[in-house]
Automatic annotation (TrEMBL):
Classification via Pfam families: PMD
All residue ranges annotated as the Aminotransferase-like plant mobile domain in the record: 47-204
Name of the molecule in the record: Aminotransferase-like plant mobile domain-containing protein
Amino acid sequence: DININKEQGRTCRVQNRCGVIKLSNFLKNLKPKQRASLEGTAFAPLLSLPKLMVSQSLMYDLLQRWCVEKKTFQLGGKYVEFSLSDIALILGLRVVDAGGTSLAQKSKKYDILKRIFEGKKIIKQRDVEAALRKYHGDDHLEEHTRLALVYIMMTLLFPNSGTSIKSSYVALVKDLSKFNSMAWGKFVHEKLVESLCHASVQLKRDCTVEESSRVLCRRSSSETGRQKSVILQGCTVAIQ
């Protein structure tokens, strides 16, 4: 087994952007009507997720054990699958698409993109937070719900290093009926597996395991002048 200790954490670390606590703080400030509206969407199961910190050392350990070729974890000489069923069990999201929609499909233009986000192709988290404050009133309940769904996507389900989201994702909230029929669990799984593969390759390339099972970066902080880190994107709370 690979021993991840404090010294190794200071030398080479794994970062993630899965904002479970940020989302929890957002949800607790919702008005009853706003929460009830979200409970009527596909993301309803996420409203009751426990407020957890994602463990940096655990993510490090899991990346060392991720087999890119088989897309599974290798533990004690055995391969342990990370499946759609795991996502369904942990997050409670649909893993079978009832409408045949995928994230790769181009969505039609949505007026919210022009009206609220000024036609931006990449929308920052601060843009969504500002819009949520603006549309916080009871007379904007439907708009607030759509914005909250976007916020959940960018903070919990598909977080990235740039804390942003593509406008094509935002356009998906226009038709809530279709939105609720989409296989969000499947999309989360795909993005997370893709990120596990990328981050695992990067970590194994930049770090070396010595005979003593001590993990160190090939380029130490003294050589680079800063701490080496690998960013694991996606909904990492699902593998914790």
